[in-house]
Write a structure and sequence with these properties.
By secondary structure, the protein is α/β, with parallel strands linked by helices. The protein is built from nine helices and five strands. Helix content is about 55%, strand content about 10%. The chain has a five-stranded parallel beta sheet with strand order 2-3-1-4-5, sandwiched between helices. The structure holds thymidine-5'-diphosphate.
Length: about 220
């Protein structure tokens, strides 16, 4: 159970090209939440992101890749997410633990169940109140990815991205009520409305601070 006054953490998850970054921004705007992302939202995270994803550097082995993602998240949690939640702010993050389970666990073949303890240890109890999986077919996502210089993972073949997609669906199914799967193939406004509805159904909306509640409506 969340301590009273604590904000809520919502994670947007999905394969590359699913539209998650646009949807994370629309959701954060709608909730007046702090918008953040992984990997790379902290100074340490920027360096970690480069080590993990820069296709011009030596490729980490899958276990090292998983640990780099977990290190980025540990720093992100302590520097950004936990303080915001403690102050009562809601937080929307573009990717979180589910991405490590799906990309490194399923995509890289390390095993979702084997990675869970690592992923849980890194976040030290800061679990999302809700994870939203934006599910699209790999072929749809590919069409949307107009990256000029794709990162190391985006360069991988469709087989990898199919494993990541089904990894996400497995994680969502196993989690039950703390994950919701939204079909991301429609237009951005319709998908956004569905995500906002799903979040409100499960978490309600942020309660404005008392000072704002006292302001007269104009
Ligand atoms: P993202 O920033 O969402 O991609 P982009 O900047 O291209 O929109 O994610 C970067 C890549 O990192 C993406 O291919 C997914 C991958 N990733 C993992 O493999 N594991 C993780 O735990 C995370 C957070 C991301």
């Amino acid at each position: 159970m969340n301590p009273p006054g604590r904000g809520r953490l919502i994670a947007l998850e999905g394969i590359d090209g699913c539209g998650k970054s646009t949807q994370a921004r629309l959701l954060a705007d709608s909730l007046d939440a702090l918008l953040t992302f992984e990997p790379g939202a902290t100074q340490l995270g920027k360096a970690v992101r480069r080590l993990a994803l820069d296709a011009t550097l030596a490729e980490p082995v899958p276990r090292a890749e998983a640990l780099l993602m977990a290190a980025d998240r540990a720093q992100h949690v302590d520097e950004v997410i936990r303080p915001a939640l403690a102050s009562g702010r809601w937080v929307v993050t573009d990717r979180y633990s589910g991405s490590t389970l799906a990309y490194q666990g399923a995509g890289r073949g390390l095993g979702i169940d084997d990675l869970r303890p690592v992923v849980d240890w890194a976040v030290a109890g800061v679990d999302p109140d809700l994870s939203v999986l934006l599910d699209v077919a790999v072929s749809t996502a590919r069409l949307r990815l107009a990256e000029v210089s794709p990162d190391r993972l985006e360069q991988l073949d469709d087989g990898f991205h199919e494993r990541v997609r089904s990894g996400f669906l497995t994680v969502a199914r196993q989690a039950g009520a703390s994950w919701v799967v939204v079909d991301g193939s429609g237009n951005a406004d319709d998908v956004s409305a569905e995500i906002i509805r799903a979040v409100e159904d499960r978490l309600g909306r942020p309660i404005p601070p008392p000072s704002e509640r006292l302001l007269p409506h104009v």
